[in-house]
Design a protein that fits this description.
heterodimer, A: alpha/beta, Amidase signature (AS) enzymes, B: mainly alpha, two-stranded antiparallel ribbon, 3 helices, 2 strands, about 5% strand, flat
């Protein structure tokens, strides 16, 4: 049975139907995923640990299906990013300091997925503490892009994206602070969605930058992303920023799409623009009105991001001191222990951002950097609010280039610039989704990104579905 | 920024750096700060800081939340004496 299931060409929607019809079993699906992992994970390094109870949980899911219980995710194999808690399982955020850390409770999203009988196959590699755009910052070695192993899969949720593209699972969870779901999804030819800020609870997720972090799905299709999103969405009293998404419905008849032309003038590869323009033409043909828009404040999103995010990183990561958990390195006194523990435990990018964060928060610089960045952030939020009175969606390429080669962006600023189009949605808190939009002459995936008004997540799925069906 | 600043920031952040690492960080900071400095030129209304995303507090009731495994938490103390975490002398 196993050899009959071609995971790479199967999606959640279809697999779920086949499970209900008794054509396949969850055990069969999981076995097929495990076979792919055995064959290719050595080369791709997408999965840090395969969970030993995956087959056992698949059996339970099959029993649920036989009893007529569960829903579309019952029995579906998923990979979970290594910063989301599953009780009793290791969760390291791809850092040395948490190498042997074991989650003592389930994340909100895991609780929800467990209830549906989804099967967790393993935990996915990522940039350390979700800081990076290539997975080159993982303490456990980089993940490779399954389309070309000399190239990065994107990041920080690179292991999640690679797992879906390589047939290690049918869907994955990632986290997105400045593009960490959408950029790797685009680099691996997949759909990646960042929900409205607060729409999905972060309880049980290792915090990076709390005013920006969101959990979301990476899948092969828009419909699959919607299936996972509908399961993990919901208010949670244990995340103080959690909100009820007051859905604005899914009707997109006569929707107007805005393109911020100003953003697309420089720093973007010619083939990306060419591919982007094809998507624009398709949307026009489908009857959507396309207009040029100005977002003068949002242009500063990346600068704002690299002030606010490291500031939050420096405070969030101060809890990692080797006292209550994590790998402790004893020093001569307690302060020496902190220093030795953190120096041995954190990689170069993590150290860089902690130091940058401490700088922008320090006396004498706080007003010029942190305070000013918050003010600009407010202006950006307001600007998106206003633009969404004029248009229903904003459309851009997801990334300024296709997946780049390993080592191509050694200068940190060059790496940061690869998130130039994805960061504004995090700064404004709005939902955003990357849809695959074809392949380059070298066979590398392209993606375009929609942004929608706050809480218009359903409409975001609807417009993405329209484009996906017509690519 | 100067080497002395990098050293102070590393001290505050409780991170040890070799001389080579300090030089590298200094170079990186110059590039990054040069880029983020553009927020200075942005003209925004001089409003008071206000946070759009307000924290919403829950009732202070431990029974409401997720189930935690105390054993898993205690099992991860890097050094312990019974149920207590052991640390070096603070003062």
């Amino acid at each position: 049975m196993t050899e009959n299931i071609d995971i790479k060409n199967l999606n959640i929607e279809k697999a779920s139907e086949m499970l209900r019809d008794g054509k396949i079993t969850s055990v069969g699906l999981v076995e097929a995923c495990l076979k792919n992992i055995t064959e290719r994970n050595g080369e791709l390094n997408a999965i840090l640990e395969v969970f030993s109870d995956a087959l056992e949980n698949a059996k339970k899911a099959d029993e649920m299906i036989t009893r007529g219980e569960g829903d579309q995710l019952t029995g579906i194999p998923l990979v979970i990013k290594d910063n989301i808690f599953i009780t009793g399982k290791k969760v390291s955020a791809s850092s040395k300091i948490l190498e042997n850390y074991v989650a003592s409770y389930d994340a909100f999203v895991i609780e929800k997925l467990k209830k549906t009988g989804a099967v967790f196959i393993g935990r996915a590699n990522m940039d350390e503490f979700a800081m990076g755009s290539s997975t080159e910052n993982s303490a456990y070695g980089p993940t490779k892009n399954p389309f070309d192993i000399t190239r990065v899969p994107g990041g920080s949720s690179g292991g999640s994206a690679c797992s879906v593209a390589a047939g290690f699972c049918l869907g994955a969870l990632g986290t997105d602070t400045g593009g960490s779901i959408r950029q790797p999804a685009s680099f691996c030819g997949l759909v990646g969605m960042k929900p409205t800020y607060g729409g999905v609870s972060r309880r049980g997720t290792i915090a990076m930058s709390s005013s920006l972090d969101q959990i979301g799905p990476i899948t092969k299709t828009v419909e699959d992303a919607k299936i996972i999103f509908n399961t993990i969405v919901g208010k949670d009293s244990m995340d103080a920023t959690s909100i009820d998404l007051n859905s604005t419905g899914s009707d997109i008849t006569g929707a107007k799409i805005g393109i911020p032309r100003d953003w697309l003038k420089e720093g973007i590869d010619a083939d990306i623009m060419e591919n982007f323009n094809i998507s624009v033409e398709k949307l026009k043909k489908l009857g959507y009105e396309i207009v040029d828009i100005d977002l003068p404040y949002a242009k500063y999103s990346l600068a704002v991001y690299y002030i606010l995010m490291p500031a939050e990183v420096s405070t969030n990561l101060s809890r990692l001191d080797g006292i209550r958990y994590g790998n402790r390195v004893e020093g001569e006194n307690i302060f020496d222990t902190y220093k030795k523990t953190r120096s041995a435990g954190f990689g170069p990018e993590t150290r860089r951002r902690i130091i940058l964060g401490s700088y922008v928060l320090s006396h004498g610089y706080y007003d010029a950097y942190y305070n000013k960045a918050w003010k600009v952030r407010h202006a950006i939020e307001k600007e998106f609010e206003d633009i969404f009175k004029k248009v229903d969606f904003v459309l851009t390429p997801t990334t300024p280039s296709v997946a780049f080669k390993f080592g191509a962006k050694k200068d940190p600023l060059q790496m940061y610039l690869s998130d130039i189009f994805t960061v504004p949605a995090n700064i404004a808190g709005v939902p955003s989704l990357s849809v695959p939009s074809g392949f380059s002459s070298e066979g590398l995936p392209y993606g375009v990104q929609f942004m929608a008004p706050l809480c218009a997540d359903e409409k975001l799925f609807a417009i993405s579905l329209e484009l996906e069906e017509n690519i | 920024m100067e080497i002395k600043d990098v050293e102070n920031l590393a001290e505050m952040s409780k991170i040890e750096l070799t001389d080579a690492e300090k030089q590298q960080i200094l170079k990186d900071m110059d590039g990054i700060l040069g880029y983020v400095k553009q927020v200075e030129e942005v003209q925004v209304p001089d409003t008071k800081m206000e946070y759009a995303h307000r924290n919403i507090w829950r009732e202070d009731d431990s029974e409401r939340g997720a189930e935690f495994s105390a054993d898993l938490i205690k099992g991860q103390f890097p050094d312990k004496d019974g149920d207590y975490i052991k640390v070096k002398k603070v003062l």
